[in-house]
Amino acid sequence: MKEDADGNPLISECHKHPFFMYYPSPTVSSAWSYFFENKDGVQDKMMRYWEVVSGHFKDNPNIIGYDILNEPWVGNLHRD
Fold first, then answer.
1. Is 71 a catalytic residue?
2. DSSP result, 22-67
3. pLDDT digit string (tens) for 7-60?
4. For residues 24 and 69, what is the distance between their CA atoms, to the nearest angstrom?
5. Taking the model in full, what pTM does it have?
6. Which one of the listed residues 3, 13, 37, 71 is annotated catalytic?
7. Is residue 43 a contact partner of residue 33, using CB atoms and an 8 Å limit?
8. Which of 4, 57, 61, 70 has CA atoms 20 to 30 A from the CA of 16?
């Protein structure tokens, strides 16, 4: 797979496969485990993000709700 100078795959490489094929990958599974286990405060940071967003839009009459966590994954399928 072709990568950039930081070792990340090029977007052109990522587009070679449908998005849903990446969800069960070890990298994405590990990211969800980090979230559920709150490693490095990932979950805390997400909650802080939503505090800022909701505070910014609190008086907007056109906002009726937020999708705080869309399509969560089960965690690390490769480890658990």
1. yes
2. GTTSHHHHHHHHHHHHTGGGHHHHHHHHHHHHHHHHTT-TT-----
3. 988 999 989 989 888 888 888 888 888 999 999 999 999 999 999 999 999 999
4. 17
5. 0.67
6. 71
7. no
8. 70
